[in-house]
Amino acid sequence: VLCRHRRATQYFIESINSACTFRGYRCKSYEDFRQGDCMPCKEWGCGYMGFHADRVKPPAETTNVKYFLKTGHSTPFCSHNYQINILFGIVSASPMEKGKVQMNLIGSRGQLGEIALTNKVNKVRVSWYPGFKPTTSQRSIYIVKLAMVKGETSKIVNFLTHNETIEAGHTQYFTAKRF
């Protein structure tokens, strides 16, 4: 028990002068948080852990408010949260597709994969692998919208401004659009 609580002191110390804010997202459950149902922050929707915890306070009549956040396994513990939103399109006469879509975020310091996001994201790599071997006609998926919500600012970064097709077994790169 002592080991788990000792980390709280390290979190608090890091929160004092860190550029990362240890933002906690107001959510009903940890599962909802993991599913991305709590982003972006809305009024009274986010709080802070550590030294700056008193920056945001829910209304006085609000009770039992739960906030969730992810921390790193080692220093720096604070991590930034991002949510990727993909809207898939349907083409008439196109069969329903089942398979696996893989994504990799690419930042100013290289590919990010499963590591914590600590730098600016400027590209997203999307690969499409159908659940079965394509037959004579190549299977495709259609992406209508690809956007990222930055948890710290609730700013939306668009990576796609028009429909794109990704054929089975292929990869497409999408670059952040500047407006």
Automatic annotation (TrEMBL):
Gene3D superfamilies: alpha/beta hydrolase. Residues 1-77 form the Lipase domain. The keyword Protein biosynthesis does not apply. Keywords: Secreted. One of its GO terms (molecular function) is lipase activity. It is found in: Secreted. This is Lipase domain-containing protein. The lineage of its organism: Eukaryota, Metazoa, Spiralia, Lophotrochozoa, Mollusca.
